[in-house]
Amino acid sequence: MTSATAADPAALSVLFLTHAFPRWSGDAAGSFILRLARALGERRVHASVLAPHAADLPRRERLEGIDVIRFRYAPASFETLAYTGTMAEQVRGSWPARAALLSMLGAGFGRALREQRRLRPALLHAHWWFPSGVLGAAMKRLSPTPLVTTMHGSDVRLARSTKASRSAFRWVMAASDASTSVSSWLADQAHAIAPAPRPPIVAPMPAATDLFTPGPGRERDRLLFVGRLNAQKGIELLLRTLSEMQRAATLDIVGDGADAESLRSLASSLGIADRLTWHGALPQDHLVPFYRRASALVVPSREEGLGLVAVEAQLCETPVVAFDSGGLRDIVEHQTTGILVQELESRALATAIDSLLANPERAIELGKSGRRAALRTFAPDAVAQRYESIYRDAITVHSAGRLATPRSGRLL
User: What is the pTM of this model?
Assistant: First the structure.
């Protein structure tokens, strides 16, 4: 029994397995996992975190009250796979990165077993089915600890990509005593790949409701994009949308990515370069004034796993305009908490944004409704309560499964 649960016998101990977690206080990488761990602590569910090492990070630390263990998996110059959101790109384009990934799986498995023996958690919670869900599923072959696996979006796209990925995904789902996804769209996608008697439970991660709040500074005809600069996030389509709009709106672009230079060239060719401001990637606390200042956040991505930036905007009472696609349907209720555009093309998006900007009173109403809805669903305490229930149900399912396992030809 861990020291926390020894002092509180009714408490529940959980070991998080993840490849993304804040490297320092305020870091955006996996920040929702830290928020979940902290909120669970308020409910006497004590979470520890196992994650890969990266440059200049301590091997052990206590971050905002949460114990974090980071394991080495390669020489320092090759420990670059975690935290940046570029693991898939690195592995596709580099044999050394592929070797580092295999080393991450091996080192992570060994370290996870050691921490499991040391901490004796009541449950493992793997964030993203790959690579952490694979570690959790492998551990279950040697240990009776229940496993919950959560899918966040990019991992479901990976599961659909190849026959080998689909097979590995089904193996992880079969090993999990419960699985969750952060949106109903992801749950449907996952269940289609791996049909099971227990489909994924829709349980989103918590948002920073204490940070993202309404405030002064709203400006007319000022749009905002927050996200990676790549094709899936739809930023190229948004630039084309801006050039087709009737209103001469400006656009703040917060984020970075491999497509940055080509996007700047596109903006020049479209004649809108002087209406754009490129801010690069920013820490979460720097985003608040951008949300407060914007007339609307535009989310032009397709098949978004959830779209947490839309939740952050809603918490700041900023109206959201998004495509009717993926997990965004769970966040934006059309004409009630934002605008969903049915046709996934620039002309329809331009028309929707023009209409919203022409009616600022309506934008205010949508912003206020959006905040109320976001607080109901994404407040940390509400999310923690949901996950505590999932954990306890998974432990029950696991125990029932062990009792039903044949031993010496008998059912126990």
Answer: 0.90
